[in-house]
Specification:
about 300 residues, Rossmann fold, Dna Ligase, domain 1, five-stranded antiparallel β-sheet, four-stranded antiparallel β-sheet
């Protein structure tokens, strides 16, 4: 942004329509609080179907997009913002749509030389009836985040009936991937003028069981170790692959890449790229930013200053 930050009216989009609404409300509130005192005005906007009209009436100078999941993270809201010609934070229409589709993300990352898991898309009813690949494996929606609707099917387990239930709302096809034992890793990336810059690597250990929604967002649900205690070649590979993924997917602003590292077979696999990473008190990106000397207020300010809109 060319104007001084202190003169800007910033609308923070939060809440929204997806299954990740609760996380977005937390992310957005934290971002809004961080902006107060740094900008001229902060407007909190719970993004609904009337978003275009609300923003037309508000006339913000910049939008900080703190939405997560469908509609807010998949290119739809980004399209509204570009139609209104309001500069906004994070990735644009194409990158947002692409990264929300796990199958297409894998295809792009493979082409870019990034190792991704095997498996593929299957009809959810078939997955509920039989083991479509050998256990252990992971089932997850093809277009959700925050570990919503994710299941681990271990060796000896029956199929996951919930995937075929009438109240399943995450699409008719699900991603089924081999379970990769070992460490859960994450890397935040800032899209800077001279290219993507990975911050550090976090090793995430759930305090009990699987790294699910509760482990991600409940206080004490997981332990974060940063920088991760990894062999130097693995640490470096995670940084470089995150930067490569950010560039290959066409991301801008902040992204976060999630990995599994099999420390027995020495195999590092990138699971997915997040274009709207969480900004809650337990989130990974602000924690990594703080580790490299960028406080929460500085990070949020950077997001606003990085905002743009194609003309």
């Amino acid at each position: 942004m060319k104007r001084p930050l202190s003169e800007l009216h910033v609308a923070v989009l939060l809440g929204g329509l997806s299954s990740e609404r609760a996380v977005s409300l937390s992310s957005g509130e934290q971002c809004a609080l961080a902006l107060e005192g740094q900008v001229a005005r902060v407007s909190r906007v719970d993004a609904g179907r009337d978003l275009a009209q609300v923003l037309t009436d508000l006339k913000p100078d910049v939008v900080l997009n703190a939405l997560h999941g469908a509609w807010g993270e998949d290119g739809c809201v980004q399209g509204i913002l570009e139609t209104l010609q309001i500069p906004y934070s994070h990735s644009g229409v194409l990158a947002s749509a692409l990264t929300m589709d796990k199958a297409r993300t894998k295809a792009v990352l493979r082409q870019a030389g990034v190792e991704v898991p095997g498996g593929g898309l299957f009809d959810r009813h078939e997955v509920a009836r039989r083991h479509v690949i050998d256990p252990p494996y992971i089932i997850k929606p093809n277009a959700e985040g925050s570990s919503v609707g994710v299941y681990l099917v271990a060796e000896g387990d029956p199929t996951q009936a919930a995937v075929g239930a009438d109240d399943w709302t995450y699409g008719e096809q699900v991603m089924v991937e081999p379970y990769i034992p070992g460490k859960e890793l994450a890397v935040a990336v800032l899209g800077e003028a001279d290219g993507p810059r990975a911050l550090t690597v976090t090793d995430i250990t759930p305090t009990k069981g699987f790294y699910d929604y509760e482990a991600k967002y409940a206080p004490g649900g997981s332990v974060h170790r940063l920088p991760a205690d990894l062999p130097p070649h693995v640490f470096e590979a995670a940084l470089r692959q995150s930067e490569r993924a950010h560039a290959a997917m066409g991301c801008r602003g902040v992204s976060r890449s999630d990995f599994r590292y099999d420390d027995v077979k020495d195999v590092l696999v990138l699971l997915e790229v997040n274009t709207q990473p969480g900004m809650t008190p337990t989130s990974l990106v602000p924690e990594q930013a703080a580790h490299v000397g960028m406080g929460y207020r500085d990070l949020v300010r950077w997001m606003v200053e990085d905002a743009s809109c194609p003309r």
